[in-house]
């Protein structure tokens, strides 16, 4: 009988030392401040590795992909064979790419890197080449419904140590705008969670012309108040056409942005050519991308300045490292996605990668809530605007089953947009 996949059965890859064979792989779903999906892999010797598989608003699809189709393939494989396992999961499925598949592969990849580093007795960044810097510059999210509230939020971030700040505000005539916290958080933390626990997604409204008129006036006011030095960022959240994005980039040039993020829905990579022709405002894109192929035109034609992918949604440390190495040849830097829907496990993976790569740019950092921090105990530090993954072995994250059990999964959806005439628009 012909063998279609002669090199991919666990028996063919039986580890020389049985101790590093994968004994179990568990898919853990919990919802402390929000939903998280975590993969926990344990070797025969009892070494445990964690991977983040959280896909905001579609969490159970990845949990099912892992439980039903990946976990059975992992049992008995050598945990040391990270690259081989990655290639096996990517190619043997036949159906490649996509957020569900790549989040599942990412969880396996990160868990295996965690295990390898724990066996080595080293923090993970040491296996990625060691530290290339002493700290990881982070940016925080400031927002406000009006300028006084925005200024308070920026000052609060500066008091916390943030040196670089993303600025999002309400827009006159629009009821609910992406990135604007509903009210100042009692904890002092920027407390914006767009995925609401409800059976249906919330409907928001949008008006691009009103947005384009308003945002440059906000940045003018922020520069006047806070001066020329503080790096300022802004997220367009995929809502503009290429020519609208080009106009916004031009209009923001006097305010010297660190970057303008997701100015168009960038699955059409060629759209960025038009934006780039018109503006020198640096561009960042890619939080919804899954593979290097989503960046092919953007990187080769130098249409962007920062890669925004998350470790969690791009096939893990192994795959994102390759994307960033590709980008480095074109002087394009990292800006790894780090909102609260990236679990502390996914954040830790990002921090180890940030510390090791040469072409690091900046790291997004949204602080998790107290319940989340009780489930995921972490070793990272944040001091004077800089993150560091810490000196514990592996990722430096442990999972508390008892704490997690207190927070069962709850259905939650990201919102969606309608224009004034009822047309569905990009959110
Ligand atoms: Mg974004």
UniProtKB/TrEMBL annotation:
Annotated GO MF terms: mannonate dehydratase activity
EC number: 4.2.1.8
UniProt xrefs under InterPro entries: D-mannonate_dehydratase-like, DgoD-like, Enolase-like_C_sf, Enolase-like_N, Enolase_C-like, Mandel_Rmase/mucon_lact_enz_CS, Mandelate_racemase_C, Mandelate_racemase_N_dom
Keywords carried by this UniProt record: Lyase
Pfam assignment, any one: MR_MLE_C
Domain of life: Bacteria
Residue intervals of the Mandelate racemase/muconate lactonizing enzyme C-terminal domain: 147-282
Family matches, as NCBIfam families: ManoateDhtManD, PRK15072.1
Protein name: Mannonate dehydratase
